[in-house]
Amino acid sequence: MVSATGRRLRAVAVLSVFLAGCESPLGPPAHAVPYAPPAMYAAWWQLTEHCSGRTGDMANVRWYEVPAADTFDLKGEYVSGAWYAEGNRIAIASDYVDYGPLVRHEMLHALLHYGGHPRDQFLGSCGDIVTCVSECVVDAGGPPHFFTRAAFVAPTAVAVTTLVIPSPVSVSIDSGYFTVTVEVTNESPHPVRAVAPLAMARVGIRFSGTGGGETLQLSDSTVPFARAGTAGSTRRYVYDVLPVQPDYFDLAPGSYTVGSTFLGQAAPPQSLTVNP
Fold first, then answer.
1. What would the pLDDT profile of 64-121 be if each residue is shown by its tens digit?
2. Could you tell me the maximum CA-CA distance found in the chain, to the nearest angstrom?
3. CA distance 174 to 246
4. Beta strands of the chain (E only): which ranges?
5. Pairwise CA distance, residues 203 & 212, whole Å
6. Residues 6 or more apart from 148 whose CB is under 8 A from it?
7. Which of 3, 24, 176, 189 could pair with 243 as two cysteines, CB 3.0-4.6 Å apart?
8. What is the pTM of this model?
């Protein structure tokens, strides 16, 4: 799993290079090469199905990698990923084939079978699960209205939940990859802000059971939320998990309790079974 620090640094890099991977009537770049989707893509696909409310067969998607690149040309713009309706093809720049938010952005296009960026999907129900910056935000109708002068609230003022996909997990299927998403929702009619004090874990997940493990994401920044019912009212933190990851997790087959926290506020525990 990418470390919390690495995840933040890479997100900054993507913001600087990624433009909306929209539909194109053309195909992937001529020098793009087909590739088999890595095992973790199955969990990412299920997560995108869940947030979008759409279902589809990932086996119908044809994947292409643009070698030795972080961007490629799409109709005169430089992008890091693109979905092509013709043949249901997705091209990803090689530097980002393992970067979940971007790959899931293209998966969402494939599930919707639409090249545009509906606000309720890209900034709403799948917000933070998929990358949406630059022209994607413009196409979606503008950024969420977080309001920089919104009132500060205690962590207890927001609702924290945990989503595990898939569940149960099988080590023999897709190498056992699964995702844990910590969802934090502002249920009030007003935009709010929560502050992560210095050295306090903004978000954390912990597994208790046969094996165990935990990971924390540290930050001293402000977490903004739009008002309830709008894009940005729920912030999501996605973790990619392998049952056995040195220095992170050691989840031997068995039963576990998954706990997550946001600024120290615990979500209701979730059950997880890891099968051989």
1. 999 999 999 888 888 999 999 999 999 999 999 999 999 999 999 999 999 999 999 9
2. 53
3. 18
4. 33-34, 62-66, 72-74, 77-79, 81-84, 89-93, 151-152, 158-165, 169-170, 178-186, 192-195, 201-209, 212-218, 222-225, 234-241, 244-245, 249-250, 254-262, 265-266, 270-275
5. 17
6. 224
7. 176
8. 0.89
Q: Which of 159, 109, 160, 158 lies closest to 130 in space, CA to CA?
A: 109
Indicate if the alpha-carbon torsion angle 222, 18, 34, 54 is positive or negative. positive
**For the chain, where do the domains classified as CATH 2.60.40.10 start and end?**
151-275
Token code pair at residue 239: 């973790």
State the Rg of the chain over Cα: 19
Number of helical (H) and strand (E) elements in the chain, helices listed first: 5, 20
Q: What's the CATH number for 151-275?
A: 2.60.40.10
Q: Inform me whether the pLDDT recorded for 260 exceeds 80.
A: yes
Cβ atoms of residues 205 and 119 within 8 Å: no
pLDDT of 163-174, one tens digit each? Answer: 999 999 999 999
Buried b (16+ CB within 10 A) or exposed e, 3-32: ebeebeebeeebeebbbbbbbbeeebbeeb
Among residues 106, 123, 95, the alpha carbon closest in space to that of 48 is found at: 106
pLDDT value of residue 109: 97
